[in-house]
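Preliminary data (for renewal application), adenosine-5'-triphosphate complex.
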Amino acid sequence: MITVEGLTRKYGAFTAVDDITFTAEPGRVTGFLGPNGAGKTTTMRVMVGLTRATRGRVRVGGHDYAAIPNPGRHVGVLLDASAQHAGRTGREVLTVGARTMGLPSSRVDEMLGLVSLSDEEAGRRVRNYSLGMRQRLGIAHALLGDPQVLILDEPANGLDPAGIRWMRGLLKGYAERGGTVLLSSHLLNEVQLIADDIVMIGRGRIVAQGTPESLLQDVGTFVRATDNDRLGTALTDSGIAFAPQGKGLLADSEAVAVGRAARDHQLTLVELRPTDGGLEDLFLELTADAQRDDLTEGAVR
Ligand SMILES: Nc1ncnc2c1ncn2[C@@H]1O[C@H](COP(=O)(O)OP(=O)(O)OP(=O)(O)O)[C@@H](O)[C@H]1O
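Predicted structure:
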């Protein structure tokens, strides 16, 4: 179990993580999503004691990570697969890890087998590894001490489709045996397939959390007019509930009813679409304010 309570991390005047609270439960895979620079890595770095919290606290398995003796036996971490010692071979990286954790060297072969790195590949220096091989080695390293908690930053990065499918099976199996998995990812379809719970952040704040089903249930029609205030009045007059979302409104009704309400008030719509496009649509809408790129139709030509 990982608990994050009121976590804030500032860098000078800039707030990278702003008062976030969530839990990653045992027996479940929790997907941690957000656009570039949203604060995912910062949050994970605080979890494993690499960055200090400005306020709030994080508990991993009920403890402050820094206070866990032999942490690799309890918490498996993969933050930056490229940070492994480039001059060592894959086998050496794992052997050093196993020694530090007091594990038998047989565990190294077991892990190499698990992540499908061949003997020949394990004998190559990490600097000559492909990104996907580094990622596999990082996952092997995280699992080496048979921990109860896994914290993985973009573990699917660089993996080919077969590798992604393999990792999905591995992490699901790990959670089914009672482990806690927190993983960040940009691969939304992948997260939708694997995550039992989702935490979404944008600009350091949580914008949504819950199971994929509960988050996607809240869909309706995303609508944007040249005058959103008048659009709000039009929806209210038609008995349609709505909430502001990104640059428009999320209406709790079908697109046709929303379109009629706008027509009755002679409003010019800029966007009108059902938000049933899965996690990707939800993600883009909820994090619209935090996106660098204008994703409105026609913005890219
Ligand atoms: N040491 C630091 N000093 C100043 N700003 C920092 C530092 N570390 C992170 N930041 C800023 O904090 C914000 C959050 O960064 P973070 O790496 O946590 O985002 P992220 O969600 O992991 O993004 P990405 O998906 O691009 O990896 C960014 O604006 C980043 O520039």
